[in-house]
Amino acid sequence: MRKFLPLLAMLGACSRPMFREEDNGRQVSVDQGRVFTIAREAAPSAAAPEDPSKLPAVEIRGESVRLLSIRPDPETGGKLFEFRADRPGPAEITFSREDEGARVSDYALLVRVWQPIPVHRARVGLRIGWFHRGRCRR
Predict the structure, then answer these.
(1) Who contacts 51 (Cβ-Cβ below 8 Å, separation ≥6)?
(2) What's the mean pLDDT when you consider all of the chain?
(3) Could you give the 3-state DSSP secondary structure of residue 10?
(4) CA-to-CA separations, 58 to 61, 82, 83, 105, 112, in angstroms, rounded
(5) Between 100 and 119, whose confidence is greater?
(6) What's the pLDDT tens digit per position in 64-83?
(7) Which residues contact 43 (CB under 8 A, 6 or more apart)?
């Protein structure tokens, strides 16, 4: 069992990426075909959180990412926005809200989508290309 602990740690590091408020303004890398989530906290001024007009407007610049779903976050009371990285290239995801009649951007994330490297066999044995090349990091 001890032999498998490093392997489990490597695979656990590559679970579905989750980005939060502290990732605002960051540039992150995601493999093509992966689903990732952006967790947004509830707006402090939102009187009726189920009102669709109170949801932040999501704008995606670039064709490499698409929005899959929006669902409630039971931990924070906010919303979870699920995206899929469809094709290699950059995309900027911004969230904006209405503030006294003006649209104000309050969250931005630059996502760079990488094409996964195929699995190959090397002299030293089987290496997993996507982990070996460091593409698993946020």
Answers:
(1) none
(2) 77
(3) helix
(4) 10, 11, 11, 10, 18
(5) 100
(6) 999 999 999 888 888 999 99
(7) 54, 56, 97
